[in-house]
Amino acid sequence: MNKAFASIAKVGICAVFATALFSCNNQQSTPSIASAGRDSTVANVETIVYVNADTLLEKYEYFKEIRTKLEDKAKKAQADLQSRSNAFQREVADYQQKAPTMSAADRQSTEERLARKQDELARHNQNASASFAQEEASENEKLYSKITDYLKKHAKENGYKLVLTYSASNPAVLYADESLEITNEVLTALNAEYAKEKKK
């Protein structure tokens, strides 16, 4: 479950940036070539920036906390499942040891009981996985909202028309000049906002 969360979160945060930042840009009017008064390519490049998603995942305090919380929950769920599975295996081993001396009726009732327990164990595992996936989706939605809300505001305040995202694991941007990177200012502001929220 932990690996699944990490991979989903990485892909999810890249999608957050791609969607959120593109939508920010659509809300602002793009200057026409005639009104720019200079080469339109230069004007557009000056309003394009990018955020390194890998750095944000590593250093955004809110994300680090929800990741830890979900990892802890996954470990507990895994330990619980392992404990239940071990108990069931002990019952099966006990039955296999006693089966030769049991009557046919006792064997049949024991096998039916063990089959029911096996089904219950499978259902418990499915329910635990579904519950974890639901909580994970809810946390990713909150993360999406936090980043989207901040970046819309940040893009408007700074006149950005396009904000890209970069991730080593999913390199949609193959090259970007470091002077266009705004990761640290975004990260600092997001962490500051989250610190204020925690004090409330």
TrEMBL record:
Gene3D superfamilies: Skp domain. Keywords: Coiled coil, Signal. The keyword Zinc-finger does not apply. It comes from Parapedobacter deserti. This is OmpH family outer membrane protein. InterPro entries: Chaperone_Skp, Skp_dom_sf. It holds the Pfam family OmpH. SUPFAM superfamilies: OmpH-like. Residues 1-18 form the signal peptide. Residues 67-127 form a coiled coil. Belongs to the Skp family.
